[in-house]
Amino acid sequence: MEGSTSASGTTMSDMESMMKELGLKEDDLVDIVVEDGDLPEEAARWMAIARVHSDRPYSQYWFFRNMRVAWDLAQEVKFRPLEDNLYTLKFSCLGDWERVIEDGPWTFKGKAVVIEPYDGITRPTSISLNKIEMWIQIHDLPELFFGLIKSLAGTVGDFIYAEPKSQDFEGNFFRVRVKVDVTKPLRNAVSLVIKKKMEIFRVKYERLPDWCAVCGMLGHLYKECGNGIHPPSALVFKNLRADWFKGPGRGPGADRASGGGRGRGRAGRGAGRGASQRGAGQHESTEYRGRDDPSLNDDIDMVGAEGNRKRGATQASSGGRLCQNMLQKTVRVELLWLYPLRWYPLAQHLSKNQRGRKLLC
């Protein structure tokens, strides 16, 4: 009740300040009453509002183009610029809208793109675009403390969902979906007091946008913080980006991922968008085993070197024949041009030799 009163008071204060700025009185305003039935439902469906978390100027054209490519939508999305760095998005189907809203964080030139659902009724400038959804990892947390994961994640951001550990994935961490405030420093650790002893657990972030290793803020790098010169001891937030466990159950985004890992989405199903479509039985392929078997790598290198040598020899031979043919053509043309009568038999002889030779290049 107090929050409602506070919100109402804030709204009234904003309205009074606007009336004062515009020199308006209550008698100057003609109120139009809007009923619920006057608002079309279709107009406000599958809409969102967005901004880029950056103070630097950028190209709207490339922002629209890059985001369309990154989202990989099934149907069209319409961007409408409202102000500098403020846009409304209108999607054509529910699947595209859910993908953009739920599968973040999204970035443009390394900077976070803050996106929120939009009802089409609220003033766009009154919507707070300060939070992004992302997966965090709490490392080395004992299994029996999973019941406290909501409280621990609440110190990092607004808790959304905790993915329970399963036996088909290897990794010493718990994944939690949270909403992180981009206007506050990131947290690099959470703590518990266990039997009167404090335990600290590292926190890492998946698909983390550009952040500062000195102050922990999103939106700039540590070389852009202050004068950019910092001792190594000041880089306390340098290891915040999560690296997936390199094993049979590798997660989305890893190079040559092989079907395993924790999937995208809140239920953690599937192999994730970054995972390959190859089955788990293909882990024993030459490409995969070569990283663990040096002798196999040597065999592959020797085969590749032999192939390169043969290709080089063939190309060199073809290049030599091509040069010889071009030289003969040049001599024949020059002879005909300089001495059309005296050297015609010689040019004709070269022409016969050229026609009789089978060119392989």
UniProtKB/TrEMBL annotation:
Residues 248-273 have a biased composition (Gly residues). Residues 248-303 are annotated as: Disordered. Residues 284-294 have a biased composition (Basic and acidic residues). InterPro entries: At4g02000-like, Zn_knuckle_CX2CX4HX4C. Residues 180-225 form the Zinc knuckle CX2CX4HX4C domain. It comes from the Eukaryota. This is Zinc knuckle CX2CX4HX4C domain-containing protein. The lineage of its organism: Eukaryota, Viridiplantae, Streptophyta, Embryophyta, Tracheophyta.
